[in-house]
Design goal:
Structural class: mainly alpha
Strand order of the largest sheet: 1-2
Length: 367
Amino acid sequence: MTVDHGVVPTPSLVWTSRFAGRPRLLAAALGVVALLALWAATAGASIDHSKASPGDDKTDLALYQAVVERMNDGQGYYQAAAIELPARSYPTTPVPSVREPTLAWFISTVGRPVAVAVMLLLAMGALALSLRTFELTERSRRAWIGATVLAAAGVGILCQPKVVEQHEVWAALLVYLGLLVRGNGKVVPAVVLLLTAAVVRELVAPVMAIMLVVALLERRRREAGWWLAALVVFAGFYGWHAWQVHGMTGPAGPESPGWLAMGGWPFVVDAFWGSSLLTVLPHSLAAIVVPMALLGWFSRSGTLFDRVSAVLLAYVVLFCFAGREDNYYWGMLVGSLLLPGFAFGLALCVTALGGLRPGVLTRSGRD
């Protein structure tokens, strides 16, 4: 069954299949998916499943809840952090050990109830944008519904009021919205959303660099200028944050053991499994879903799909090299973005196995 609501996708949402007329390339890609799934399933999970739910890192959450409480009592962010981190055996060096102050400032300024309301509004915006975007990109009604449901569930499971102080939740929402907004052809709003995400959690700053590179490759000089400006603003803010962290006074905390762990592909699966909707699945099934979802995004070429694919690939590489076992929650940053790709991957397999007419893999408007 095809979807036809009398609407034509904007040029930025039109895509073509990377496998059109390339059955051998598709077979090779499916073979890689199978090998990756086998690798992760054989390696098994390296994290405790009882702790593997989005935003359930209680120690981190309690830490920044305590920091916000101190700020509500009149202390500054860095003053509160200098007390709470060492008291809870958290390192205060190097600089990435201390979260940026943006989220704590926001919550202490507007109050927790308002912050929760804003978080839920962002989630609703992500759901509405997903519904519209996937309606326009998907030819199959089942693929449209599947991608939207996975997106809604992936975003929804993150947005629990009890985790409003969790930096990764906000960063994940803002990155998701930013990439879909850019996929719909809106550059400046996407820049604002992704810059905001980066000043909440620095681990998503590379997304802006990826967007800059893609814009340069596509010879979009004006857009590249916006991304470059955003990176300069972020660099200035993070430099100021580093200066503040170095100036913190208080009891000395333990030294960070570092984040280079070389976990390889199994840690990639663990990161996505332990911090997203996939946590409801057995690890062996998540080992299949993750590479299939990646293939779903990578199988399509177009403004939205190229950017999302580049971002996901960057974080796959990052997780292969960086991240200790207790850093699995980093997967939350792009986990909800990954999930709709599973619907695209299934649609690709159905198309390939169905022996549809020549050219059906080339996306150009509605069927």
